[in-house]
Amino acid sequence: MNGIKLELLSSKEIQDICDGALVILQDVGVEIFEEQAKDILVRDGATFEEGRIHLPTKLVMNSIEQVPSRFTLYARNQNNNVVVGGGSPLIEPMIGRINVIDLESGQKRRTSIADVSKLIKLADALGNYHVLHSGAVMPRIEGVPEGIAHIHGYIESVSNSSKVIKGSGRGRQVAEDCITMASILMGKRTEDLAQEPPLFTTINVISPLRHDRAQTEGLMTYARHGIPVEITSEPQMGATSPVTFAGTLIQQTAEVLSGIVLAQRINPRTPVIFGTCAAAMDLRKGLIALGGVEGALINVAHAQIARHLGIPSRGTGSNTDSKVLDVQAGYEKTLTLLMTVLAGNDIIFYPGTIEHALTIDYRSLLIDNEICGMALRAARGIDVNEQTQAIQLIKETAFKGNYLGKRHTIMNMNKELFFVELTDRDTREDWMERGGRALDEIACERVKEILLTHQPDPLPESVRRDLMSYQREVEQRQRSTAESE
Amino acid sequence: MNRTEVIAELVEGMQELDEERITKAVEAAQDSGVSFDEAVSEGLSRGIRKIGEKFESGELFLPHLVMAGDLMDAAVGKLSETLAHQGESVSSSTTVVIGTVKDDIHEIGKNIVALMLRVSGFKVIDVGVDVPIGDFISAAESNNARIIGTSALLTTTQFEQRRLVEQLASQGKREKYKILVGGGQVTEAWRQEIGADGYGKDANAAVRVAKELVEKD
Fold it and tell me: What is the reported pTM?
């Protein structure tokens, strides 16, 4: 059993897409809004023509060769360390969004720092979540002063989980702050973090073919420290990329590769992740169709392309455009998640979200954990060997009873079957007796229970003190900047 | 083609998104006696408004709308070369300066709003993406605009929308302009918080709000 790998493209088609991307990088180029990045690329063989950086194929291929095909992210609790590119998909729920659905009222409101701590605590408790998007990536948290949300967000996140916590890459200073806080968390010097990176970040290329200033600064900062960067393209088919799948894949591949080249030129062998959050645009509405089948198909092809290039990949799953946890949310989430997991993307982002991934729902975070469990089980595939074929057992048991009490059943059931925790399989009578409630209501209750009872690994007091002292330092810096302006 | 036929062809050519028909009508315009203003306001604009209506009713999709905008641009460009302008009647419609704020280079939403505004009869000055506040203001001043529209997709760049309101106020120009805000995370509450005049949750709403703001004048 090697697990399932869903495939859509033939080797020839993958090669065509990659060749197309190389043509785009060489002939069309990319626009980069950060001056130093342009200088570095030109120094290393790129050309600057008509405002765009053109990347010769040789430079791109050399850079791809330098990318590690797998690497480890180190958590505060080493049992939570994860291998990226190790064959099993890692799930990254989304936490840091500006909006959240209030658990009591069911209404949408701004995400506060208390929400960050609760969402992280919930994700810490849920076994199918491996790396955590965090409060650090939030440019705004309700009640936190402007400019220091990433500090509060990071501290609140590491205080409530010992899993790997993501940092922000929006701007040089914000990136440096996150890296410094991660070094405090691990009790290491920042220059030693590259050996055992305790964080990573995501930067988004703006389709078509543009790198904005702030995120390029972030990419460069993480790369200089040798800390993993996920470079993600987010085209909307028909609007910011061609309406055809092949055209979108070519443009997206070119976009991500351009970021990868920059990272490798700054610091060879910096771990990078080949990312997508592509979807179609709903051409009647002018809005993203994040839960659509198109994005799911792109995810499958994207994973194949990444494997071909030998670079770990990131896709999206559990996507929905629905505003509530209804049937639409259910089918969109399952469709997008199952396809991306079966495709073998290494990191899968978006569980916990509704409404084009703009809003976090506590209940969704819980329910998606269960769907993720099923999808991960599906990806493990079917084991066929003497033990699992059970021919002797069938001979002994058939016509003489059933398999329920057999040792073989007890020995293998946990490995073979997926035991649900939320999904309802009661008889109608039992279900009615327990209140006859829909899953979202039950999820609400269960979330509250977990928040009340789950105890994350406590953050050592000395670490908390050092992080708070860094927070004060940044607050002082903010005040001085404000005064000098 | 006579004057009436040219106008009819421009309307229908736009409605059908038929580049060839539009091109022929544009070529025939000079000898037909039609004026630039007639060709644009009675011909092309009427046609593109029909496209806008069909988009709103769901009969046509966004790509049709964008194509109509491009056809209109090309036709207006050619007409302005061959036909004499008569005063300012076409450009006397309300001018909107629109752009994406500094440090933000997302443009698809802004482009759709700009297009819908044009389809609805506004004169639109698109100042592009990553636009500093000063450039919004100077474009508005030099084009005698009535509305300034800012788009911000990122929560980090949304603050620029507030800074525009503040800067206009500090320059004593706040009353001169109506300020429209839009973008991924922008809400009515944000509009109120920063004291902007209008918020459009989507392109159609933006046009509706822009019209209301101007009608109040």
Answer: 0.89
